[in-house]
Amino acid sequence: MPHQLSLPGVEPAEPRPSRPHPQPAPERRARPHHLFFAVLADPATAWSADRLRRGLIARHQLAGSEVRTERLHLTLVSLNWHAEFSEALALWAARAASGVDMPAFNIRLDRFLSFHRRRGNRPQVLCGEGEGVAGFLALYQALHDALQAAWPQPHFARSAPVITPHMTLYYSPRDVPAHPVEPLCWTVREFQLLYNRLGSGGAYRVLGRWALDHHRFH
Fold it and tell me: What's this model's pTM, rounded to 2 decimal places?
């Protein structure tokens, strides 16, 4: 599949004062560079998610920090946080991802809940289940298999860990029980390799993107 790879040469802009970031833990500050595969929300979906978020913030009286609209996504596979940006790791990940052959698929997120953390604010997330996330989970499995096969050492588990597909909207100390919400639905036509530097603002830097086959719809 075709992809583009644009390694970061210029640091992203500083965060806007109106959207403060949670204070990072000391161990995270020592490893500020993050590479991960994800499905970014397209602009129309991100706008709908932001509208839904406004209603949920008011409904649950949430206080905390929001995820920038341009950063709304579902994580597929994290390649972990690192002390320095590794071009070699990014290139290896891109080569592995090029072997993923998957159809486009629909996704449906229709529940809102809080994830629990041992400390700090809790992620307030949208989740889906069943057929609503079946295509996403199939893509996750295919990407995990491609990375596991390409990695020269036993780094990835042979079996893909169980995950809960989710989109984080907000961080707040409030514990919100799961409840249904207006469904957020869209067609996923690509996935991306993203770069984030801790404390940076603006959109994630897209290092690579891979189209899903719209002729073979999941």
Answer: 0.84
